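Q: Could you predict the 3D structure of Stage III sporulation protein AG?
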Amino acid sequence: MKKKEWFSLEKIKGISKNQLLIGGLAGILLLIIALPAETDKNSQQKMPEKESAENTEQSTGNGVDYGRELERKLEQILGEMEGVGKVEVMINLKDDGERILDKDITRSSQEVSEEDGTVKRNTRESQYQEETVFSKETEDGQPFVAKETAPQVEGVLVVAEGGGNAKTAKNISDAVLALFPVEVHKIKVVKMN
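A: Sure. Here are the predicted structure tokens for Stage III sporulation protein AG:
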């Protein structure tokens, strides 16, 4: 019994040089197309994870860090205003923000009517199922966040060298109102010692 070989030199000799050349070029072209696509795909998948992790930490990952960052930016901006001078800011946050997870919701209902002589019965069934959607990009399967809100600012205290001047205090208060959705009575501007 003779074994059949799928690859042999006799078969290659039967193929013309043009066919071999075309086959070789097609193989190289497939390799060129496939390899960069894999590396691009991997880099694109890894990049958003890092970005989203950094953004989450800055925005709502820790309300204390978010509040400190707001304070730093506000101090920097107010320090540039005319007549304010040296300034320190304290921002009170109402909450730590909110993360709304994406849910896969399945609803179904069924109504059955039965008649048995003089008796008539109606049966109604409804089902509701809710499951959290998890990300497949990460190994630990973190939940997919559909919406994320930043912590809400509840009050602002500004201590400034120019806080004793009524016009400067009004300008500081107006600047805070323009930046944060805070009621006027929850903004306090005082003079620094």
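Q: Anything worth pointing out?
A: DSSP finds four helices and seven strands in the chain.
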